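Lab notebook, bench 4. Still working through the backlog of constructs that have no structural model yet. Next entry is a single chain of 134 residues. Request: give me the structure tokens for it.
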Amino acid sequence: MNDFIWPIRVYYDDTDAGGIVHHANYVKFLERTRIEWLRQHGIELTQLKQQYHLIFVIRQLTINYLKPAFLDDIVHITVNLSKLGKASMTITQQVSRNKEILCTATVKIALVNSINKRPQAIPPELLKILTNPS
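Model written out:
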């Protein structure tokens, strides 16, 4: 499931006093886009928790801020599944404005059992969706 793109408009509450997107809000943009990426392929987080007792936990997040985004910008956030493990995945993301890259990120996600909080293997149905999107 590569190169999913989600547009987000920058609102006033995303910015600091200078009208520049606050660095912490890029994390929100990235998270929302990953959720929409999953939804696009029929994967709902609430269903994963109810059906499989599975939750996604951010294990590591690396962000490179390159250029600022501003109030009223429309930014596009990409999702690219770069690595899939037995109970983890690594996703690379970019935030861009008019094809100009503003921010890049690498997100390592652990799949964890919601009851015992231990790593949990990706269920076969989910693995099929992640490896063979259609």
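Notes after review: The chain has one domain: 4-131. Residues 4-131 form a domain with the Thiol Ester Dehydrase; Chain A fold (CATH 3.10.129.10). Flag for follow-up if needed.
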